[in-house]
Amino acid sequence: MNEVKAMRIMVGYNGSDASKAAITDLHNSGFGDNTEVLVLTVAEEWSYPRTAADAQMIADTGKAEIEQLCPTWTVSAEVASGSPPREILAYARSFHPDLIIVGEPHHDLSEHNLFVGHTSHVLLTESNCSVRIARGAKRPKARPQRIIVGFDGSVGATLSVEAIAARRWEPGTAVQLLAVADASVLSLIGRFNPQMRGAAVETKFASQWAETLASRSLAKLERSGITSSVAVVLGHPKEVIIQEAERLDADAIFVGPHCSSNSFERFLIGSVSASVAARAHCSVEVVRQPESW
Question: Of 134, 162, 185, which one is at a domain's C-terminal end?
Fold first, then answer.
């Protein structure tokens, strides 16, 4: 079993149901006893809280809730005034978090909504560290965590696996590396290589490719005491990842942030982090290597 990494986390908290759910989600995110959390509440001109006093009350409430939920953590609270995403990013430049967490309700799949809210969108686009769009979905206490990783063997996918392996999960936690083979790309391959035509051949090729890409990641997870597997599903990534997460009743999805310009590298999964973050029923963590703030 590996040693759990010390984590520095920023939580954007405004007292809404979504941000309360984000705090609930903290307890199920694999963080160790040596976690440090900064709760930041931003007073806005057009939305509650509008005053610094109200913001301070909300921030203190969020801090107290985290301390009660995770008593071994070091928790502090700060307030600011202005645009929430800008203030969160500004504070991040001095706090240097490994992860920024904000709560947001999911957007129904039938709405064809590809976008998260403004704060989440700015953070996903401009943050120099990982961002978790948290949804405190309830799961049966007797059931261990189920996690899906959007996997294509890219740097982003590998970082997702490393982030999971570096945390502390309850016994029985299961991680599925999900490779999504885009049917349009497979059809294109079939046009140039007749031997690749046919759904059965396409699926076999995709499975072999995914298993080759995933071998090291599977081994890393197993060494960390985490049950892991790889699955290949044909379809469009932004739809399939969400559908598989719902089918498996997943508690979280981990994805990389960037889209490769190479169509073959995009063969198993495209850059769909924003769409998945907007429409998943569970929490979505977009993982990137921390950079200098």
Answer: 134
